[in-house]
Every structure is written in structure tokens, then in C-alpha cells.
Design goal:
This protein is mainly alpha-helical and 78 residues long. It has helices at 6-28, 40-59, 66-77.
Length: 78
């Protein structure tokens, strides 16, 4: 995106990754209270959708990590 400087895009990706890691540790840690039985997938879905909608528009893609969205884009170009 032309209107987002590289430093802001990097910070958005860094923040999104940090929130994802902390959220995963909070939900899946056995020593933590975590999500109720059977609701861990729902909690993970809400976490990823929240990060994607909250931080995704600044970089022009709703993916949290560019690593996961780059290979499909590369294959589609070829």
C-alpha cells in the first residue's frame, strides 16, 4: 500500500504476531485456565479474525503472517 510506510507495516505485522503468540499460549496452555473443553477452536478463530480485521487493513491483506500468504500468491503468478 502506498499510504502505509514500511515501518508502520512492519510494526503491524510484529504486533499481530505477538498478539497471536500470546493468545495461543493463553488458550492452549494446560496450566492456565484456558478455554472451556471443546471451545479452543472457537477461541482461536475469534483470535485470528480479530487480529485480521484489526490490523489487516493497514497492510492491504487480511492475513496475519505474510509467510503463510506468500506461497499461494507465488504459485498463482506462475
Amino acid at each position: 500500500m502506498d499510504y502505509v510506510p514500511n515501518s508502520s507495516a512492519f510494526f503491524d505485522e510484529f504486533l499481530g504476531t505477538a498478539i497471536l503468540v500470546i493468545g495461543l499460549l493463553a488458550i492452549l496452555d494446560k496450566r492456565n485456565m484456558g478455554a472451556p473443553t471443546g471451545l479452543a477452536p472457537v477461541a482461536l478463530f475469534i483470535l485470528v479474525v480479530g487480529i485480521g480485521t484489526g490490523l489487516g487493513m493497514q497492510t492491504g491483506d487480511l492475513s496475519v503472517l505474510r509467510l503463510y500468504s506468500f506461497p499461494p500468491k507465488l504459485v498463482s503468478i506462475l
